[in-house]
Amino acid sequence: MAKPKKKKVQLDHLGLKTDADQIIGYLVGEVPREKLGLHIAKRIDQVILCQALIVNHKFAHKVIPAIKETLDVSESTAWRIYQLTNRVYGPLTQQTREMKKAIAEEMIRQDRELAIQWEDARALTQSTKNYILLHKLDKEEAELPDFSDFEGHINIIAVLPEQVGVNPVSDEKLLKEKLKDYLVD
Question: Least C-beta-crowded within 10 Å: which of 61, 78, 173, 185?
Fold first, then answer.
């Protein structure tokens, strides 16, 4: 009887198991590109390209054909690259305003670093302008009213006698009391 074949599990020597983990490790600066294999280096380039296509095209039905055309791959491979990109960056097609603002702020920071490195005063000025526009620092803040002397409404809660455990006076007894008061006067 033949022994069942064992599955070959390859773990990266750095302890990173999946392509996404290795790519994230590279992108955050924990792993140098030289320590990654050719397969992962190729995947990094594909993921970065796919991320740019997602940001430009927004929808998967537009991104997948663009990946196929740009990288000259099959549709199934394009979908795998798209899914890997979503694992690395998160769902980019469902970005919130705060996420877009954070991405723009990071882009401005990178542009600023390049401008300083290249000693380009014009680009440095433009990155400062972009930062000011992003955070709306060029606009005056609206003055908030002073609420220190504001008095809120008093809430009066009406309660039925049955709700507080008091038996209400019957209509007949109430009518008799009113007639008695009327006749006595």
Answer: 185
Contact 42, 36 (CB under 8 A): no
Residue with tokens 């007894």: 173
- Residue 65's pLDDT is 92
pTM: 0.44
The 3 state secondary structure assigned to 90-125 is CCHHHCCHHHHHHHHHHHHHHHHHHHHHCCCHHHHH
Burial class (CB in 10 A: 0-12, 13-18, 19+), 40: buried
Q: Do 22 and 88 form a contact (C-beta atoms < 8 A)?
A: no
Give the count of beta carbons closer than 10 Å to the beta carbon of residue 101.
13
DSSP-assigned letter for residue 4:
P
Rounded Cα distance, 123 and 174, in Å? 88
Measured CA angle at 87 (ends 82, 92), to 5 deg: 65
Position with higher pLDDT, 92 vs 83: 83
Q: Are 33 and 64 in contact (CB under 8 A)?
A: no
